[in-house]
Specification:
Elements: H1 13-23, E1 31-32, E2 39-40, E3 69-72, E4 79-82, H2 93-98, H3 107-110, E5 114-117, E6 124-127, H4 129-134, H5 143-153
Antiparallel strand pairs: 1-2, 3-4, 5-6
Length: 172
């Protein structure tokens, strides 16, 4: 292999790439853009597109720092900025903050909690009523109690991967 900058002969491509980075202070391209076929260097060698061609990069990315749009608030007519990737802006932050009923109430804060017991140790816990429908095995203080309950209740034929028979662990 020959260095494209100084012409020095090297035995491997890897050696040539290392030489070029160390001696000429510039890495050689290791990727070709799928969009425009421009060769570029990518440190992690994972990108598929050159920055200017990337369909999700730069100005094509809704969260790009220069991509904010300006709009007049429908409530107070004040100008405000928002990212187009968010829902389209309609109200400025001040109007949203002060508007009663504009934002939905936080259901988790307004609904009284229900008392339940830990399925392993019996400790008293408080949960949202909606959570009761989602937890078919009950509630637990933490991972330790949940693990203890699993070890006692999800074994043998009650385990989803059990195929019958016994399993011996370790030496007998």
């Amino acid at each position: 292999m020959e260095c494209p900058t100084c012409g020095k002969g090297l035995t491997t491509e890897r050696g040539m790439r290392q030489h070029h980075t160390k001696v000429h202070d510039e890495p050689l391209p290791n990727r070709t853009c799928k969009g425009c076929e421009t060769e570029f260097y990518d440190l992690k060698a994972r990108r598929e597109f050159y920055d200017e061609c990337n369909p999700n990069g730069g100005e094509h990315n809704g969260n790009w720092k220069g991509a904010k749009q300006t709009m007049a608030c429908e409530q107070c007519n004040a100008e405000f900025e928002y990212y187009p990737s968010d829902k389209p802006g309609v109200f400025c932050a001040e109007c949203v903050e002060s508007a009663d009923g504009l934002l939905p109430k936080n259901y988790a804060e307004t609904v009284p909690r229900v008392a339940v017991e830990c399925g392993a140790c019996g400790a008293a816990l408080e949960v949202r009523p909606a959570a009761i429908e989602q937890h078919e095995h009950g509630f637990f203080c933490g991972l330790e109690c949940y693990g203890r309950w699993l070890s006692s209740n999800v074994v043998g034929p009650d385990h989803h991967q059990w195929e019958g028979g016994t399993i011996e662990y370790g030496q007998t």
